[in-house]
Input
Amino acid sequence: MTMPTTTDPAPWVPIRHSGWPVHRIPIWLALLVAALVAGGIVLVSLSHTPSRAQQAADLNSYLRDMNAAVESCAGGVTESQQALSALQSPGSSGADQITAINLTTYNASNCSPANNELLADLTQYQVTESLAKFNLVACTDDYVTWAFDASQAQTDMVAVMRSPAGSPARTAAAATLRRDLAKLDAERATIDGILRSAEHSVSDTATLPALPA
Output
């Protein structure tokens, strides 16, 4: 019997895949998309630009917040100054000295954020976005700094109260107190300058938080 002739199959050759074709975005189209996105951002920003009336209302709210935060500290500084003045007047007694020292010591403590919750909250205060251009973040920090320095100034007052009249210790304590009070005055002027500039920009004349001179 004759066996049929067989033919070996051709060797297997793998098919090459070059991957999906890549479609490149024309440069002009990419530039157009970028321009449209940028234009959209500008339009969104413009649509959220606050009116001057809204800025004035937000500024007044900011001033109320600042006043609420520093009012007790600022009032305490005034009380301490009055107590020191009364103690230095003729006729004051040892009992007056003790009362003045206790009052001023308490007021000094009350100007520290560690002992005053309102001042502590001020260290985390967020300025409204509508007022972002008025440098009020720095102004808020200045209020906190003023309170810290007010605490130190009142500690100086206690040192004056404890020192015998006419002594070198009294002279030195009084000089330190004058220096620290001058620092408070400079900080108050900086704060008032920032706030007056903001008020001028929004045509507002609200009363600023009172900081003793």
Observations:
- The CA atoms of residues 146 and 187 lie 6 Å apart.
- Helices lie at 27-47, 52-88, 94-110, 117-122, 136-162, 168-202.
